């Protein structure tokens, strides 16, 4: 099993310190972001690439192009700029998230966006990692719908799914697509009081024995079905971000998850 770490796990660490922490954890694969923390808009991509090479880590993705399924306004320009940055920084893929504000986006518009984004990714040797969001207000909740759109856009060689354990649980999805999954995001929810439909990013912590999302069961199912890619920690909760020693917390979560398999 290959673990990775998303920079949102320890957003107070500089990029160099984040890469160093990953290596001390025995990890060689990382994800960087354009939000929390905003590496993309604060660092030159050549510097990011040099820092990754110096640390001996591979940038598996940049999070995220949003809202990728609304191909209008400034989105095409944002997509080009982020793809250029990914290529220049040495990142292998772009995570692509759908509109998540309660506005519906048609299937045809979803297909059109994937079709428009396809050559941008192809020309730069990038993979598009499509991440359905399971929130009730999301315009693309399920991996099944995402795959239908990818196939309609003829994008099977360019696009892969992100299986996010949090969003899989929220969407009530039961089907796994290991052969078409490029990345797995893992995080847990331990608050016993919050209803599933009310779960938000703020509830997402590192995975431990109190997890309500069945992370271990999801991970086992993916591995049993043949997924051999990366499981990347992606907790959004402020209490994780504020930890004095996030490295130890991640190590404990790795130890817990590994012991359950």
TrEMBL record:
Residue ranges constituting the Xylose isomerase-like TIM barrel domain according to the UniProt record: 19-256
Lineage top rank: taxon: Bacteria
Pfam families on file: AP_endonuc_2
InterPro entries in UniProt: IolE/XylAMocC-like, UCP036778_sugar_epimerase, Xyl_isomerase-like_sf, Xyl_isomerase-like_TIM-brl
Name under which the protein is recorded: TIM barrel protein
Phylogenetic classification of the source organism: Bacteria, Pseudomonadati, Pseudomonadota, Alphaproteobacteria, Hyphomicrobiales
